[in-house]
Structures are given as C-alpha cells and as structure tokens.
Amino acid sequence: MRRVRPGVAATRGSTGETGSATPRAAAPASSRAASPAPSRAPGEERALTSVAAGDRYLAQEGAEAQGGQPVDVPRLWHVTLSVSGEEAPLKEVRRALEQLAHDHPFLLTSRYAGDHAEIRYWEEARDLHDAAAVALRLWGEHRQTAGLPPWEIVGLEVIDRQTYHQRIAEGYGPAPATPVGVHPY
Fold first, then answer.
1. Quick check: 32 and 76 in contact, CB under 8 A?
2. In principle, which of 35, 103, 182, 183 could form an S-S bond with 97, CB 3.0–4.6 Å?
C-alpha cells in the first residue's frame, strides 16, 4: 500500500496496465449527484482531497513548493486511552500492563481494575490524526505480546502539549501522572 499526502497527485484504480478502469474525479458531495465526473485517460493522475489542511501543514507544503526539503515537525501529544471488558484477574491485568509499559517505553502511567483500565502516555507525531491512529492500534497490537485482556477501546483523548499544560495550570483536566507506573484505581 502506498501512502499519499493530501494534495499530492495519485493514481486510483490503476494496476499499471493501460486500458484499465477510468477513475472518477473527486467532487464535493453536493455536486456529485448533480453533474457527472469528467473522465480521464487511463493512468492520468488526480489530486486526492481530504479534510482541509491546517496552517502548519500548508506552511510545510509552501516550503516544498519553493524547492525546500519537507519540514516534518513532530509534536508531543498527551494520550489517554480507556479500555474495558469482561472481568479479568487483577494480577494478570497488572502483569500485562507492566509488560505493555516495558514494550512501549513512553507509557507514563496506567490505572486498572478487573474490568477496565486507563493508560496515559506522550506520543510524538506530526499531527493529531497520526497520534490518534497510533493510540487506537496500541491495545490490539500489544494484546498478544503483553498478554492484555481482550478488552475494547472505549475512550480516547489526544491533546497537544500546550493544551495539557494549560489544563493543569487552570486546575482541571487530567491530573499530572500520578507516580509513573501501573497502579490500581
């Protein structure tokens, strides 16, 4: 699978052979039904459309357009992942979370009970979408290796570093990580 950034030309529906299916141009949802999409020759590229890019991304694209190197500026994101499911023995839950902390070194703290847990950590990522994608895969990808319970993700909060520190300063939001490690509720 090839990764494509929004706004970069990409071929869709082509297997590299000529004469294959002709892709349709992307159009706003309101205009799709009103007018048919123009057809293109096989292999002709089109720009993918997505959610509007933020200022940081547009500045990066501007630097690339001027011949500069891509400016990937990773940021720190505070992640709180909540999971729950069927009751599991506390000793097994604690051992699994300790193994997860060993496997995922940026894990700050975990709180757990027999049927739910909350994991907090810092993730370095280009944007919120990347940080959230990593967080949503964390539990499933480590389920076997760490021996985590077969619980489902029931909550996710991803906030940037500035927002995290602003919340703490104002006295609300997630409290600073209680002692780093794995703790019962």
1. no
2. 182
Local mean pLDDT, 10-residue blocks, the chain (185 residues):
43 40 41 44 45 46 50 87 97 95 84 95 95 94 93 97 91 66 84
Pull the structure tokens for residue 47. Answer: 């720009």
DSSP-derived letter for residue 35 is: S
5-32: b (≥16 Cβ within 10 Å) or e: eeeeebbeebeeeeeeeebeeeeeeeee
155 phi and psi, to 5 degrees? -160, 145
Angstrom CA distances, 174 to 83, 100, 169, stand at: 17, 21, 11
